Amino acid sequence: MPKTRPGLGIGSLPRGRENYQACQRFHTSTDMTAQQIYDKGLEEVDRIEKLIRKV
């Protein structure tokens, strides 16, 4: 398609990664990377599942 950008997501735009990180900092109030946030989420799911299994 001639009028579309070549890549996917904001990362394909000029300074896209920097803009993504700025939006992430704004919405999460943290300097954690996207991967760190994702990993923390997995840890929390595991922790909560263990608590539920005890019940």
Q: What would the principal axes of the Cα set say about the shape?
A: elongated
**What is the element string, with H for helices and E for strands?**
HH
Q: Which ranges are low-confidence, i.e. pLDDT below 50, for 5 or more consecutive residues? A: none
pLDDT averaged residue by residue? 92
Secondary structure: helix percent = 55-70%
Structural class: mainly alpha
What does the oligomeric state look like here? single chain
Total DSSP helices: 2
| Structural Rg | 17 Å
Q: Would you report the number of β strands?
A: 0
**How far from one another are the termini?**
54 Å
Q: Indicate the proportion of strand residues.
A: under 5%
The main sheet comes to: none
In total, how many domains does the architecture comprise? 1
Pfam family, one: DUF885
Walkthrough of the structure:
It holds the Pfam family DUF885. This protein has two helices and no strands. By secondary structure, the protein is an all-alpha fold. The chain has one domain (14-54). The termini are far apart.
Core attributes:
mainly alpha; 55 residues; single chain
List the helices and strands and how they pair.
Layout: H1 16-28, H2 34-54
Give a summary of the structure in a few sentences.
With 55 residues, the protein is an all-alpha fold.
